Amino acid sequence: MENGHETGNGVAAQVCDVAPVPDAELAAICTRYGCDKHRMLDILREVQDRYRCIAPSTMDRIAAGTGLTRIEVEGVASFYSFLSLTPKGRVTIRLCDDIVDRYSGLEAVSAIFEEVLGIRIGETSADGAFSLEVTPCIGMCDQAPAAMVNDVVLTRLTPETARAAAEALKAGEAPERIVSERFSSLTPHERALHMVDNNIRHAGEVLLGPVPEEAGLNNAVSMTPAQIITAVEDSGLRGCGGAGFTTGRKWRFAASERAEKHFVICNADEGEPGTFKDRVLLTERPHLLIEGMTIAARAVGAREGILYLRGEYVYLRELLEQVLEERRRRGLLGKAILGVKGFDFDIRLQLGAGAYICGEEGALISSCEGLPGEPKTRPPFPVNRGYLGYPTVVNNVETFCHAARILDRGAKWFHAMGTEGSHGTKLFSVCGDCLNPGIYELPYGHTVRELLEMVGGGEAAAVQVGGPSGTMIARDSFHRKLTFDDLATGGAIIIFNGDRNILEIVEYYMSFFVHESCGYCTPCRVGNVFLQKAIQKFRKGLANPEDIDYLKELSGTIIETSRCGLGMTSPNPILSTLKNFPLVYSAVSKPSKDGIRDTFDIQSAIDGARKIAKRRSYIFDKDFTQ
Amino acid sequence: MSGTKKETGFTFTIDGIEVTAYAGQTIMEAADEAGVYIPRLCDHEGLRHQGSCRVCTVKAGGRSVAACTQPAAPGQAVENETPHLTKMRRDLVEMLFHEGNHLCPICEASGNCELQAMAYRLDMTEATKFPYLEPCRALDASHPDIALDTNRCISCGRCIRASQDVDGKGIFGYVGRGIHRRVAVNGENLADTDAEVTDHAISAEVCPVGCIIRKRVGFAVPIGEREFDKGLIGHDIEEKRK
Lengths: 626, 242
Prior knowledge:
Shape of chain B: globular
Distance between the termini of chain B: 20 Å
Order of helices and strands of chain B: HEEHEEEHHEHEEEHH
Distance between the termini of chain A: 33 Å
Largest sheet of chain B: 5 strands, mixed
Number of strands of chain A: 16
Oligomer: heterodimer
Helix content of chain B: 10-25%
Mean pLDDT of chain B: 95
Structural class of chain B: alpha+beta
Strand order of the largest sheet of chain B: 2-1-5-3-4
Mean pLDDT of chain A: 94
Low-confidence stretches of chain A: 1-16
Strand content of chain A: 5-15%
């Protein structure tokens, strides 16, 4: 973990020898995706799944098969956490290393896996059977600690269940069988429910209450695109992914752009630690989501759509494929939807491969295009020139679901809920130190205190609203409101009681951003590492009061000069805790005394040299003896 | 710019100086033509704009944007050389110094190095407060005429674009993510690629630092007589206004 250079994910590691993959098989994989370079992520995912590695010789041949250079293939392969240039075990266990998982017993669970499998975190067993890794938030904070075992999700792990799972895997059991002995006979929906609980604690009027089938779409087909856009605009719906842009306006911009093609993309890449609301919608309301996308397609004139599913939610792939297929069969996707001539629209599922940045609109489009998930230069905006250069609407899962309901019940109905500027309901994913973690659908405008009462979070000392890129508030701010104008949130509410160490949480969040920065621009790539190191200094008690100014100044530069939302918000864990928990920082920063700067630890500074010289320093060694 | 385009031009200001631009021009392109220098490292004449170093950050309409990618807009008031922006830029240049290993006294690009010259221009004269990341990347000297010391690389990607777009080769590319993102070559090492010392991507003008090294030509011009020993970086652009 030195220098923020963690092992594993996102690292262009050196490669080692692996058995060559037969040419014919690679050619078959490329052909399956039309030898299309834009499907590179699918091609690499499949190679990774089947051969556990994307070796240099493989990259050469994939490049030849898709008309790219090897370095272009390597650029993609080395960007995504779930792709690997070195061989992974046939079973790869990824323990979710979110702060909530850490506070729920991750350490004990990982110790069990290490013990039973005989490998440490970050290692692959010598026989190639297992890899053991950690991965950032997989969207299961309401049932932490959780893990992905290949494509299977295990939740609420305890040392006992972890031992049972590890021993079963070691005995050669398939990961699916750990979930259920009858796994193969379950439907995709049942499989998802066997792995992951929905934890719907409060169903609201819009999304999680009773939802009539296709009511929105049935109305939409009798409306003109302009009328659909006006309805969505009048409802006051704003994007539910976090940024809160007015949905109707986005659709209007895309619709007014003259182009050969238009695209509709659903952003199902909720990666903000503590967020899992889209997971629940994807499981329980997939038809409503696709209905919303189909309505958007009619509004902007799109014939093609993409559902971009985060790699961590691969366990929902089958379920979503089944829904898409069923809708094609029922004439709700494909040619002449609901019998309306000229209303053609179909959707492909695009799976991500472990990269938080792909939740950023431009990065998500890059990823759909088969590129590393790097944000795009704006302008042009995606509504003008997005996927493959065509006007593209990108909305979040929840936003599309809302849109479908608005078309069913009308703009006024939706507009009447919530507060001025924040209309309708919002899904809150609540986790951490509370009695009832899970999903709450509430109108905008509740205070944090009201929410805490609902979820049994009476012991909350700090609440992280909107995930790490949002705001952390203390008890004196629990009267604040969950709206776009006060505490804006994509939905994540993480509760910490008084026993938690704020600086530990901040350091975790900074290391998350260091890990997840795409690295395109200087301030985000480098500056976040500096912030992480500075927080480590505070945690070690080596900080001076001036270091607080340093944190603020450096944060300011990163926010102001970064190219996309990640860098523009990554210093928030620091800035919001400096503002709302100032004592935490002042308690551990000391002025220098006797001219000796506490910030400099001579012992650790000379330790490397001491080892090389195999000799102690007479001057600086602690006990001054020879 | 052709005469016909000039007719569709519009004006905006940079630090109060009136500048003419044409539809589709970026702030930096218009500034360059008008003899107003906006500091930059990843941007280079004749190459696609990338907007990754962020050294060209300016304030336009109250927002901070990269001048190399932001389109110029009629009537806009752009801030360029303010103490605030100079401080931001100095922070960014310092970040690049600390991310790599930049040993100016022994680097053959010293005096010809844009990173070093930018530090002088932005008045980076004191010891910096950032930590050193001290990377340790292997030197690639496999090619008979070219060597790569990526410890000095600032990830500007000018070589990538020059090789792709000018040479039509694609010898370089980015790999990895975050702090591990770096420039790599299209093969096991440089000798494995079709790089030639005559490529535009390899020319001294493209690599702003001492990362791409042409063998047997180093230290030909003595220190004191090198490009940025004679004048601040950007003076060639600023002289257009005089």
